[in-house]
Amino acid sequence: NLILNLKNVDGIVLRTAKLTNSVISECKSLKIISRHGVGYDNVDLEYLNKNNIGLGITGTSNAISVAEHVMSMFFTITKRMNDYDQLVKSGNFKKKYDLGDFFELYNKNVLILGFGRIGQALAKRCLGFEMKVYVYDPYVKENIIKKNNCIPIEKNEAFEIADYISIHLPLNDKTRNFISEKEFGMFKKNMILVNTSRGGIINEKELYNALNEKKIFGAGLDVFETEPPRNDNPLLSLNNIVLTPHNAALTLESRKRMSIESCKNVIDFLLIKKSLNINNFVNWNFIKNYRFK
Ligand code: NAD
């Protein structure tokens, strides 16, 4: 049925469903697939390149929402919002001194891993709260990091001084288990770790151990090794972690931008319009000569 509907189309706007090569091979007129979002692990890029099919994403649509989500996790954990909320609701207003310390973001060291769209949007927000912003991204030139009022740094040095770490890397062979047992041994005791990028970049078992043994202050996750996390995932039982259901990019504003941008990619591509945003095309180098000579 899917093949029947797609057989004669020139462009596809794709959300999260997997689009297999066997379906694509039946779409003889297909010229472009436009992903609603920035990840594209539900299509086979190599196959698209071989068949001269463009792959668009909505690159600029969700960075602000994800960066704001990270800030809310920083604040929720730092200020122990969930604990104090429970205190008042359970009639224990006067026990406010019993919960232990909570902190300011002011003047703290934040380490941003990955200085792409979201990492850069987060840096601006952290600078607004007068944090010191360190960046680890060997693929971005140091002068670009400095121009953004951030400090380039090597990761091992950064792991020792960071009060906050936020991850904005793609998931691949180099970044899987990027934060694991060894790294948890390097962090400050009051460090707060947030991951809104992809599950698997932090090793969940080691994260559980670190939180359970209070090796770090807290963590925030929007993404998991398995989504949804299994009911017996031990992270669900901790109270020094804040969890959200992979919804960092799903604010109303971001959803509107993603819908418009994903359709605009298709229209501009098919009509060969000058307004085409080539930065949105993952395989521009493969298809530019084929379609945009
Ligand atoms: P991006 O491609 O703009 O930036 C990624 C950055 O990581 C690049 O600057 C790149 O140089 C850097 N990088 C790559 N490998 C690295 C390595 N080994 N070490 C250090 N730096 C490395 O991506 P983005 O749009 O900023 O998205 C970042 C991540 O967030 C992606 O994994 C994406 O899938 C995820 N994401 C999640 C949500 C959500 O809803 N939670 C929404 C959007 C994006």
Order of helices and strands, N to C?
Answer: HEHEHEHHEHEHEHEHEHEEHH
In which order are the strands of the major sheet placed?
A: 6-5-4-7-8-9-10
Question: How would you name the oligomeric state of the polypeptide chains in this document?
Answer: single chain
Bound molecules: nicotinamide-adenine-dinucleotide
Features:
binds nicotinamide-adenine-dinucleotide; elongated; 10 strands; single chain; 3-stranded parallel β-sheet; 293 residues; alpha/beta; 7-stranded parallel β-sheet
Summarize this, please?
The protein is an alpha/beta fold.
Structural write-up:
The chain has 293 residues and is of the alpha/beta class. It is 37% helix and 13% strand. It is built from twelve helices and ten strands. The strands form two sheets. The chain has a seven-stranded parallel β-sheet with strand order 6-5-4-7-8-9-10, with helices on both faces. Helix 3 links the parallel strand 2 and strand 3. The longest helix has 19 residues. The chain is elongated. It starts with a helix and ends with a helix. Nicotinamide-adenine-dinucleotide binds next to helix 6.
